[in-house]
Write a structure and sequence with these properties.
This protein is of the alpha/beta class and 329 residues long. It contains 13 helices and 13 strands. The chain has a seven-stranded mixed β-sheet with strand order 8-6-9-10-11-12-13, with helices on both faces. It has a five-stranded parallel β-sheet with strand order 2-1-3-4-5, with helices on both faces.
């Protein structure tokens, strides 16, 4: 090889090498799809997920790109939004939170890795084969909703010993197939506590007022709300109607109590969102969802609103207040 040809080849290689390295680096920036029912409703959960990513060294806009798709409370938009994320060829989809976003993501793709957050029962919902061996392209965190039903009634009875008839507000299909398990658990718990359960359904926002009228006619003196995306979107209205109806109520998430509800007991949703980042990190590093067991909540919180208790003329027993993780005064 002559000297001129050698210099041309070496020089070209030196120029091409940085360009190739730069292109390769740019190609490695992962893209995360974030599918949400309503981002504005749970900013603390979104921030907890972002903090979880930061703990693993991922910063949105720097070394990872997050594509947000927000249904803004319109659950019918979830399938189309999930399909958009698949079309963008994201590396992983985070379904936040609950069963319906996860089902929409699963329907959109059988290959893109999906991490779900706060699903009541991923097995009965058809999202995974088992908790230990998910078996497909989905994994994530369960909210253990069915097992909590008995605890809700127990706490409500502790807070208000005079409760004899508890209305259970539910949205058919709002929790996938999990709501049937919850109602079964609630019925078993009610029998043990000597309480009667009255199941009241609301299929959509327009049914909520009628549902509360049905509770009053049936002389319910307690209320348990099975949280679904629809009720979460309408939680201030639900809380206000419970107050207007003079019904002491127990909810599954703290944000209902923040809105004025009496009490809540359930998994810490922000903690579940933070832990979802660990799944994303593993998947981006090559792990398959099928090999990542579904995890259950490790943090549960009891929150009591004494302002609401006072407005209802209730005195919450000191023994119950001592159990609370937070008391709003």
């Amino acid at each position: 090889m002559d000297r001129r040809a050698f210099i041309t080849i070496v020089g070209g290689s030196l120029v091409a090498a940085p360009l190739a390295a730069e292109a390769q680096q740019a190609a490695k920036i992962p893209r995360i799809g974030y599918l949400a029912n309503r981002l504005a409703a749970n900013p603390d959960q979104q921030e907890a997920f972002l903090q979880g990513l930061r703990d693993f060294g991922y910063v949105d806009g720097r070394n990872v790109v997050i594509e947000y798709r927000d249904a803004e409370g319109n659950l019918k938009r979830l399938p189309a939004l999930a399909a958009q994320l698949v079309a963008l060829k994201v590396d992983v989809i985070v379904a936040a939170a609950g069963t319906l976003p996860a089902l929409a993501a699963k329907q959109a793709s059988g290959t893109v890795p999906i991490v779900f957050i706060a699903v009541g029962n991923p097995v009965t919902s058809g999202l995974v084969t088992s908790l230990a061996r998910p078996g497909g392209n989905l994994t994530g965190l369960s909210a253990l909703t069915p097992e909590l039903a008995s605890k809700w009634l127990e706490l409500l009875k502790q807070a208000v010993p005079a409760v004899t008839r508890v209305a259970v507000l539910w949205q058919p299909g709002g929790m996938g197939d999990t709501d049937k398990e919850v109602l079964k658990q609630a019925d078993v718990a009610a029998r043990a506590l000597g309480v009667r359960v009255q199941v009241v359904e609301a299929r959509g926002p327009t049914d909520i007022d009628r549902a509360f009228s049905d509770m009053i006619r049936a002389r319910a003196n307690g209320l348990a709300v099975l949280s679904t995306p629809m009720f979460a979107n309408e939680r201030r209205r639900v809380v206000d109607l419970a107050a207007k109806s003079r019904l002491p109520a127990v909810y599954s998430f703290k944000n209902y109590v923040d809105a004025g509800g009496l009490m809540s007991y359930g998994s810490n949703a922000a903690d579940l969102s933070r832990r979802a980042a660990a799944y994303v990190d593993k998947i981006l590093k090559g792990a398959k969802p099928a090999d990542l067991p579904v995890e259950q909540p490790t943090k549960f919180e009891l929150v009591i609103n004494l302002k609401t208790a006072k407005a209802l003329g209730l005195t919450i027993p000191q023994t119950l207040l001592l159990q609370a993780d937070q008391v709003i005064e």
